[in-house]
Amino acid sequence: MPELDRRHFMKLVGVGAGAAATAACSDPVEKLVPYVVQPEVITPGIALEYASTCTECSTNCGLHVRTREGRPIKLDGNPEHPINRGALCARGQAAIARPYLPQRYEAPTKRNADGSTQKATWAEAEAAVVAKLRSAGGRTWVLGGQVGPSLSGVIDGWVSAVGGGRVVYEPFAYEALREAAAWVFGVRALPIFDLSETDLIVDFGSNFLEAGPSPVEGMRQFTDARDIAKHSDGGARLISLSPRLTLTGANSDQWLAPKPGSEGPIALALAAVLYRGGARTGGDDAAVGRLLSGVDSKALAAEAGLDPEEFDALAKKLQKAKAAVALPPGVAATTSGGTSAAAAVLVLNALLGANGRAMQIPSSDTAGAPDTLQAVKELIARMQSGDVDVLVIHDANPIYSLPPSAGFAEALKKVGLVVSTATLPDETSVEADWVLPQSTSFESWGDAEPRPGLRSVVQPTLRPIHDTKSLGDIFLDTGRAVGAHVASKIPGGSFREVVETAFSDSDFRSVLAVGGDFSAAPPAAVSVGAGVSQIQTGPPTLAGDGDFTLVAYPHPYQGDGSGSDLPWAQETPDPVTKLSWSSWVEMSLGTAAELGVTFGDVVAVETPSGKIELSVMPRGGIRDDVIAIPIGGGHTQSHYGSLSGEGSVGVARGANVISILPDAVGEGGGRAWLSSRARVSRTGRFARLALSQWTDNQYERGFAQKVSLAALLQDDEKHHGEEHLAEGGEAHEGGHDFALPYDPANDSSPDSPYRWGMTIDTDRCTGCSACVVACSIENNVPVVGEEQAIRHREMTWLRIDRFVGDGEVSGGRERRPFPDRERLGDSDVRHSPMLCQQCGSAPCESVCPPIATYHSDEGINGMIYNRCIGTRYCANNCTYDVRRFNYFDYSRENWPGELPFMLNPDVTVRGQGVMEKCMFCVQRINGARQTAKNEGRLIADGEVVTACQQSCPSQAISFGNTKDKKSEVVVKADDDARSYIALHVLNTRPAVTYLAAVGRDEDGRSHG
Amino acid sequence: MKNAGRGSGLAFGRRAGGTFIALSLAALVGVLDRDAGAEASSGEDHGPVQVATSVCDAQRLKAAKENDPHLQIEIPAEYNQQWPSLSACVAHEEAWDPEAPGPIQPIPFSHKHHAGEFGIDCQYCHSGTDRSRAAGVPSVELCMGCHAQFPPSYDELTGIRILKEHWEEKKPIEWNQIYRLPEHVKFRHNRHVAAGLECQRCHGPVEKIDKLYLVPDTFWWYGVPVKKPEMGWCIECHRSNDHQASQDCLTCHY
Known about the structure:
- Chain A is of the alpha/beta class and 1008 residues long.
- Chain A has 30 helices and 40 strands.
- The longest helix of chain A has 18 residues, at 6-23.
- Chain A is globular, with a radius of gyration of 29 Å.
- Chain B has helices at residues 16-30, 34-42, 55-67, 86-95, 111-117, 122-125, 140-147, 158-168, 189-194, 200-203, 231-240, 249-252; strands spanning 50-51, 73-74, 175-176, 219-221, 224-226.
- At the A-B interface, α1, β1, β2, α19 and α28 of A face α7, β3, α9 and α12 of B.
- β1 (31-32) of chain A pairs antiparallel with β3 (175-176) of chain B, so a sheet runs across the interface.
């Protein structure tokens, strides 16, 4: 027998392997592409976090950007940042998509005379702009949003050298509040509120939990101030004044619905009562006395539509409170008299003793603070008269966010050269002659100064995906090219060096590690000055003579419309109406009945400035004389914000309410958002809205429970007398009387040291939905789009259920098409985060034919995607409706372009026909297990933080091992008076324990 | 902290040169290729003078002459080089052998030459395997850390020229993946390294293979033929190991 040498052996084996390969050739050949030069810090497979700053809104929360192999995949709050302390709102989370959006400008773009566009190189683009700048002769203007102090300094230097001017334009500039601080305290700045030590918060329409200048911080301080564990009396009470039930109203203990725009007069009336009761500001009390002496409190309250008893009760509460604070009107409540209203609230605060405690006035405004609408209008007039040769527009979309009557679009045509630095095509940038696309904040250096002295750094975490430049470098490069006279007025080097120089007083590396320089000194004390005499008491000026006051309010995730590009800002249901993807008009149930319209009927809303058509969302929680429309919809240009990204050119999704607002300028030159009346008429058409929750009735099933404070104080022995069953409470005592509580710790393998569980404190949950977005991004949950959302095919693993009261089992099983249990003045809204309960006795597991879902050793209800054949039996049998089915390849279809780069590589992307659901972030558990195993120990308490838990601004969620009796999750759940299990009568034995909300309303106002 | 996306660090390669020259010398002394030897000895009548046409050819002739001192060989001065060694030449050829199993890679890289003959530790190139879920494929820079110090005569090998081309153009090498797990499997290399598993346990005797291929390791698992790296193959090990390794679905599927 000839010897089988190596080569022959290989040949034989090769035939075998080849045959095997042919048999299994369905897998495409994948490429392994390693680095050319591997950066020292990067190990493929290990995530790196960088401290940075969120630039979605002017709050500028601190970020930890989690990156994998050089791509940001998740945004978490920076725990060291004093504003957000580790939490991040829904919009901030959604911003992860920004650098990867499919419609980004990929290179400098020139618009030809015939409207067509062509790409160009930076050299060509800058040469064209620089040539025009040289000849513009001091008639160059920069119009842009608020940017960090370093960038602001560069732009100021650039403008002064090329000659011209600069207007900082933010749609939500809080001009009224800044001006009010100038009137009352002599400092033009945004007051800073600290609610954590208060005992009464009166919200004069700031809607601080949803919109406000700093919602994440507000939520943290608000829930801390009423932490039931620390404050046995229930802590701070919240009274909300608003014509519609906002998220703040839904979390309040009392909701008052005075006439829109009457917040200022009510604050003044209350101030007068306090002043007459002997309260003083400690400042120029003579001026305050003069102001308040003429105030007829009762008349003002009556005019505002407040019941005299309600007003007296409110005044008494304020007088009784030891640490009360009043919050000034926000965007939606800013009228033509907005400055007076805000100033009245500031005076009220001074009388309440909140000045210097719960309210602090910085000694100056931040660098590059926004200018007023008046300044913008002056620029428009200048453009109109042909006085502007070059207009540079950055970080702003004035054609969308200014009312058409302001005439910006027409004036733009008279500008010699319009340069936009937009990253994404928007309504304004498509009109620009040149687009010099700036990099996103994930790709550029920068800084931010959300508060005077508090400096936060923006560091790039992604190499620019397209041929873009950071805004700072665009200004520096063009400035130097114009000539030496400009170069001498702007800093040398790249913009990165400018940022480094800005932090030169501390070690830049440690600044980058921490995320900024947070050592701001507390502002000096200020006192009330004579400027209070400017406060007026008149009712707001409203344009038009319609029946309804039009309230335009900021969409919680889309803000002024700049957030509507983000897929998750569109898909996440609005926390109040539970609507997504479109715009809607809220009106009261009575108004809708009178008009003969119901949910989804399209009505025309007409003001003197224009007309828009949108679908109706009837609500109980809105005044009859008010209609409300969210700001943010009606884009014609972005991929997700409009329908144009789906093929139809220039078609808006929803309607832009700004287009029917007058360009009203209020006191102090600020923008008056509450400035118009409207007529509403039927159109006869119907356009279904994507409503994620069809009822707010919980039919007494106790999903979201509430315990009255009185009951809690009496040490309510809700569970007293019930025996803890040793082996988990299977004993059936007849009817619905299952013994509770059982111990979830029994529902995992006896060999396993873990049974993962969660405790959700619904008393802390505000319903903000940050967790929903955090969960979706961590777990690669796709957006499904408007059409699929209308069909109820949303994929979010975690949702916030919103109920009003305990609900009632009404006669019959009438199914209402929309939530209708809100009532005017009733704030008993319950929020209940609903996610897979990881049942110990799960109904889904027993019905799965291929055993794709099963109970893991550690008590997690595992969902094995590759085993799933899509029968959907499990979803049918799920008690909690938390299983989600991929009817289509959503992840492939709805994440075009570079968007898949934001996917978390630690989690499988599910395809069509596969069921999916929450698994308690098992990838994070497995990650922590790895560390623990390497160190030869068990996973410690607090080591696994789920995505929802991490993002929660009010820390409502605890997660941990229920077998560890000292773990936070067990300790918190051990609250006999408040803990409950969703649908416990079904004995599904969930691992999620809820803690009931606490009813702090003394007058017992609640359903059932 | 720097921008993670901008690769600017010089991570590896500083200490590589000296070690490698020593290693290659050792290999040259110790290694003789059996195939080349066999071919040379088969020519009994020494025939005409054989003229080397390349350094590799010269190395082969020199080796043949050592076996058969009567062989007539002529080595032009330009090919009378020490490098590339005979083993390098053979490995280079074998790694691109179209007859051998496995996909043709962009560079004829021989694991046998590097890991076997030179005995380079697996984790020298696949660094991070003990820390990360991913084994990591060496960067071009890491390859060049050694290869940049090699004499120019090495450029005779096509693979070396391709490598240098990638380095000069700063172009990554697109290797064909051989050991590939589906996306719904989350395998962690570091856990398996920490558990003391040999790389060869799953990847086969890579140090003996020139052209890498998926070493077939079919066995019968409950009457079903299971191949590497299919699930039964993973489970078999997880099960046999005295229940040290978890068999829970969520360990790997999530």
